[in-house]
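sorry for the late reply, my laptop died twice this morning and i had to redo everyting from scratch. anyway the thing you sent over, i finally got around to it. pasting the sequence first so we're on the same page, its 712 residues, then the predicted structure underneath. double check i copied it right bc i was rushing
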Amino acid sequence: MKHIFIIIIALISSFGFAQKTESPYLEVLTPNAVIPLKSTNVDVKISGNIAHIHIAQTYQNKGNIPIEAKYIFPLSTQAAVHKMQMTIGDRTINAKIYEKQEAQRVYDKALKAGKRAAKLDQHRPNVFQMNVGNIMQNDEVTIDIYYTELLVPTAGTYEFVFPTVVGPRFTGENTSGEKTFNQPYTKKGVADTFDFDLNVQINSGIPIADVSSNTHKIKVQYPNTRIAEISLREENKNPSNRDFILKYNMRGNEIQAGLLLYEDKGEQFFAYMMEPPKASANLKTTAKEYLFIVDVSGSMNGYPMEVSKKLLRNLLVNLPETDHYNILLFAGGSIVLSDKPLACTKENIQKGINFLTNERGGGGTQLIKALKRAYQLPRMDAKSARSMVVITDGYVSVERQAFELIEKNLGQANVFTFGIGSSVNRYLLEGMAKVSNSESFIATEMSEANAVAEKFRNYIKSPLLTQIRIKAEGFDVYDVTPSSIPDVFASRPILIFGKYRGEATGTLTITGQSGNGVFQKEFKVADGMLSKDNEALRYLWARKKIERLDDYKRRFNDNTKQQVIELGLKYNLVTQYTSFVAVDNEVVNNSGNRKVVKQPLPMPKNVNNSAVGAAASVKGKTVIKKKKRTVKTANEKATTWFKENYTEFIKKYLKKYDGIRVEIGENGEILKVEILVNGTWIMNEVVLEQLNLMIAKEVFTIGKGVTITIKN
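ok and here's the structure:
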C-alpha cells in the first residue's frame, strides 16, 4: 500500500477540476470501440404554425456479443412526442404507451426473454433517453420518433429549433442522486460518431421570405412562393454538435394568426393565435435597476465567455444614466462588483466592463447559491423594481429547484435569461423566465450578441398589452390554457389552447390595456379553420396542460402526478411518468445476457473539455479484447493492476479529498468507493460510477476481493 501511495502522490499535477459532473470523456478512437448509433435522420414538415417532426435513429452492433444501447438526446421543450416505432428488417412494431414503472417492467421482461425491445423515457421536458436492447451482432434496428410543436413568431420572425446534443451538466447542487447525465463525451474537436442529416419543408398560406440559418450551412429551394425546401449542405462539419436553428419570415412580416379547430373521438379542440397591438411611441420610460448574474464556470471557458463579455458590454453601454446596475459573477462561489447598485454613468459602466474583462471561466456551476445571494443584495432603493438578468449556458441539473426559488421570490425581481452557446439548456432558460413571466434570449455566436442585446432593450421598454382578458360568447369553451394571460412584450402573439362543446359558432374577444388606451379585438369562430389536418391540436393541447401541471413547478402532489399520467396514457404522449415501449416477438438472445453500451455524445460546439469534470485521459466504456496476466500475491496483483489502470484518475481526486478507499471484486469490478472527509469515510457514488465507466487494459483475476486505501 505504501508504494502505490508514494507513486500516486508523486504523479499529482497542477490539473484542476472544472465542472463537478458525472460525465467522463470517451476516447472514441479506442480499438474495437462499439458505437451503437449509426445515424440520425430528421424530416420536418411545417404547415402554417405547426411543425411535424420525424426522427429516425438507426442502431447497429459491430461487436461480437449482444448489446443494449443507451442514448441521451434532446428534443424541443415544446415537443408533444406522440408516436414511436421499431423496425428490424421488414418488420415494424408500433410502440405502446405505459406508466413509467410498467414500461420498465415490460422492457426488462422482453430483454430477459431474449427479444429485441426499445424504450423511450423523458427525464426533462427537453432531455430524453432511448434504450434499445438485444441488438445482435450485425443487427441494424431503426427507431422512429414522431412529435409536433407549435411555432410562435416574435416580431414577425418564425424560428424552428432542432436540438442535437445534451451538453454536460454540473450535478454538484443536485441531491437526488440522479444519474441521467452520467454520459460519455467525445473530446472537443473529435468528429461526430454517427451520421446526421436534416430536411425541412415549409408549407405556408402566405409567401415565404428570408429563410436562413446561422448555425448550419443550408440549401434552400422554392417550388413556389408558399413552399420552401431546406436541406443541409455537405460542407457542414460535425453538424450534430450544435442545435439546428432555422429562421424565416412571411412576406410583409405577416403572422398566420387565427383560429384552428379539430374534432375527433367525441372531443373538440381549438388553438387561437392573435397578433398583439403595435407599440405606442409616446410611452414614458421609468428608471430601472438591473442585476446581471453571469456564469463564469468551466463550461463557459473560452468562446462562450467571450460571447458573454460582448453581450454584457452591449447591454450596459446602452442603459440610460437614470438606471442602476450591479454584476454578480458565479461558478463554485460568487463575487459582486459593488456592495450597492451603481448609476449607469460612463465611469461606472467602464467599471463593470473591466470587472468581467479578465475572467476566463472555471469551476462548477453553483446556480442556486448564486440566485440566493442575488436575492439578498441591496436594491437601489426600497421601492425600486429590479430585473435579474442571468447569463449562462444552463449546464446544470437543478432546474426545478431554480423554478421553485424564483416562484418563492416573484415579488422581489423579474428574471430574464440569456443562453450563451451552441446547445444551451433551454428547459432551464425558458423555465426560469416563464416562472417569472419574463423572457429568455439565446446567443449562439459572437455575431448575435448585438442583435440579442437590442432585442432585450426593445423588450424591456414597456409591455405592449396588459390586463388581458379573453371572453367567449356563443362558443362553449373549457379546459383553456393558460388560465390567465401574462402581459405581452416584444411583439409576441397571444396564444390560447382549449376544448369546446357543441357547434363552432359565436365570438372570441380579447381585451386589454395598451399604450394607446383600451384594446379590443373580436374574432368570429365561424371563420376558424376546422380540418382533419389539425390533428396535432389534441397532442398540443394535452402537452400544454402537462406543461402547466408539471414542467415548471416543483411542489406538485400525487393528484397532479396522476393527472399527468392520465393525460399521457389517453393522448399517447411521453411524459415524466409515461414511456413508450416497443417489443419484437422474435427470440434472438436465449441467454438474455448483453453488454450495456452508452452512446458517446459530441462535445457541443465551442465548449471546452473543462465543461466535463473528469480528466481527458479517462476512457469510456467500450469493448476491448483483454489479455490475462498472472501475479503471485493478492497485494502485488491489486497494487500493480490498480496503478496501471487508475492512477491518472485517482490522483486528481486526492486534490479534493483527504483519502480514497476502493473495494475491488474478484473480477476487477469496482464495488464500492469511499472518500475521507474530516476523518470520516463517506460512500461516493459519483467516483464509483466514473471508475466503472473506465476500461481496464487487463482483466483482474485473483479469486477474492481486495480493498485499496489511499490517503493524502
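The two ends are 13 Å apart (CA to CA).
thats about all i looked at so far, will dig more tmrw
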